[in-house]
Design goal:
Helices cover 57% and strands 5% of the residues.
Length: 150
């Protein structure tokens, strides 16, 4: 169904209004969350930073043994780790099985066509409702929120 020029202009105007209101709502929500954070503060930040620093200190590899030799220092550890993993992940010439000479069954056109099925309205609706309201699939500006509302 084709829309008249005036209907198309009204449609685009409504779409722009909807998107503008949607952006305003998101902005207001963000501002309210920042205001709440400023009022109440972040009581756990000192504790959280302490936990993160402790984990970071515990995860440091300052030295390790390679073939009975103690490796220390950032550059030496880096070289030893690189050498270890590069030797383990190199391509090797391995005799791999091939599919030459094997006979495969193939489907007839009728059997292949049975795999193609039209989408049901319920499947399309479920797919749209699973999408985020602010996602826009094409550059026309119509979001999934707009589609769900109308």
């Amino acid at each position: 169904m084709d829309l008249l020029e005036s209907e198309l202009e009204e449609y685009h105007g409504l779409t722009e209004d909807f998107l503008s209101l949607s952006r305003s709502h998101a902005s207001i929500c963000w501002q309210q969350s920042r205001a709440q954070w400023l009022r109440e503060g972040d009581a756990n930040s000192k504790k959280n930073h302490g936990i993160i620093s402790s984990r970071r200190r515990g995860n440091v590899v300052s030295c390790f043994l390679v073939d009975g030799v103690l490796i220390e220092g950032v550059d030496n550890v880096r070289r030893a780790v690189f050498s270890h993993f590069s030797s383990h992940f190199q391509a090797s010439n391995v005799q791999r099985p091939s599919i030459e000479g094997l006979q495969f069954s193939s489907l007839s056109h009728r059997e292949g066509a049975s795999f193609v099925k039209l989408f049901s309205v319920e499947e399309v609706k479920a797919a749209v409702w699973d999408c985020d309201n602010y996602k826009c699939q094409v550059p026309d500006g119509i979001t999934f929120g707009f589609i769900k509302d109308f």
